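Severity: low
Component: inverse-folding endpoint
Summary: output formatting inconsistent between runs
Steps to reproduce: submit the following structure tokens with default settings.
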């Protein structure tokens, strides 16, 4: 485990302990003031959702508003619940790197699955998204003629 991942794990444990002790009211806000601000705003919502240990975790663009390091921490955390706790994560993302953390990536267009890939890398996902973009461009041009 990297030093950063270890720090995230320590912060996660601290947040869960503080939330268990103080609940979610004003006392919890005060107690959480001692936790790293990047963690509170980036990784904290994911940790709180995971603390309940649901069988399925739904994520809608979980890294969209995060810096690259915090995004990597969140994705690593999500990957670990799949590998270590046998939970299922269903994530919607436009990011090839985020999608590459999954066991299966489904590319959707117009409500349909147009690609279904097992364990693709970020580059392969990006290629598929570029293909989809070119296909949509050709379709629009044909419709305008």
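Observed output (run 2 of 3):
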């Amino acid at each position: 485990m990297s030093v950063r991942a270890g720090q995230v794990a320590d912060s996660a444990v601290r947040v869960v302990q503080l939330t268990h002790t103080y609940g979610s009211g004003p006392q919890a806000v005060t107690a959480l003031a001692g936790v790293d601000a990047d963690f509170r705003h980036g990784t904290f919502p994911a940790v709180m959702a995971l603390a309940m240990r649901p069988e399925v975790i739904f994520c809608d663009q979980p890294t969209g508003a995060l810096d690259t390091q915090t995004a990597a921490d969140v994705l690593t955390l999500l990957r670990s619940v799949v590998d270590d706790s046998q939970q299922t994560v269903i994530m919607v993302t436009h990011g090839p790197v985020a999608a590459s953390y999954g066991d299966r990536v489904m590319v959707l267009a117009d409500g349909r699955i147009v690609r279904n890939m097992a364990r693709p890398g970020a580059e392969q996902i990006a290629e598929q998204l570029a293909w989809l973009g070119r296909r949509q461009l050709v379709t629009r041009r044909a419709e305008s003629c």
